[in-house]
Amino acid sequence: MSLFRCPICGGPLTREERVYRCVNGHSYDIAREGYTHLLPPNQKHSAAPGDDKGMAAARREFLSKGYYRPLLNTLCNEILARSGPAPVLLDAGCGEGYYTSGIYRSLLAAGKQPQAAGIDISKFILRSAAKREKAIEFAVASSYRLPVADGYAELLLDCFSPLALEEFYRVLKPGGFFFYVVPAADHLWELKQVLYDRPYPNEEKETPYQGFAYDAIVPVEDTITLASQADIHALFQMTPYYWKTPKAGAERLAALDTLTTRVSFRVHIFRKL
Predict the structure, then answer these.
(1) Are 119 and 146 in contact, with CB atoms under 8 Å apart?
(2) What does the domain layout of the chain look like in residue ranges?
(3) Which residue, of 80, 81, 159, 221, is most buried by count of CB atoms within 10 Å of its CB?
């Protein structure tokens, strides 16, 4: 049985070789790459929502080189410490599946029997995710309308994706854990110094959410050196700064062959009450 539920009637989905089907006769084709489409037309705000092909390629290339490996390692350690023998993991806003796959493999390596799924609003980026890990289910869907049954997931990851708290609360089982990754104050500070005349730090705050209790806030700190303009541009393209940087800042960045910058994250870990 699939982790996913029918977005039309909410019934359980069964995965066949090329299609998902529910008991009420609704069906969803599985793309050649291995993902399916569970985003009804009335939930789409554009013809191709989410990351475009260029952004998807940038994320894939940058993450594949291990620059954010410290964050993945931290997530694996924290999730392993809070998971049962057969955990159900949902990655809401999974992107190219880098973290989804890494966590899934770490659970397997620890002798667990995980079931995992990832959703993202971008079909372009899910093509990479589905190719990366065939054992994980991937679907085009919205975090605000998760195609998952109530109380089904034990672990939920949100890494730089929209905070859909009501849905996260709904799909997590009581006692389940929600891992929320956000940039720390000085994340990519040296990159921002190139892009902007007056860069400002990211806001850091501890926010309690109704229905959840804080379990921990785990810092991840590292310094990375990007050794080519291609890597620098890939990082730039996968950040929000790509869309809101003055032309002069983008030109300064394009002139660099190397860049050393801090990477700094906070993993906020919540437990559902």
Answers:
(1) yes
(2) 13-272
(3) 159
The DSSP letter of residue 30 is B
CA 52 to chain centre: 15
Residue 153 tokens read as 């997931």
Q: What are the tens digits of pLDDT across the range 139-194?
A: 999 999 999 999 999 999 999 999 999 999 999 999 999 999 999 999 999 999 99
Distance CA(189)–CA(191), nearest Å, equals: 5
HSE at residue 268, side-chain half, CA atoms within 13 A, is: 19
Closest Cα partner for 131 from 56, 223, 235?
Answer: 56
Helix, strand and coil content of the chain, in percent to the nearest 5, comes to: 30, 30, 40
Using CA atoms, how far apart are residues 157 and 229, in angstroms rounded to an integer?
A: 31
Closest CA relative to residue 245, chosen from 207, 169, 194, 172 = 194
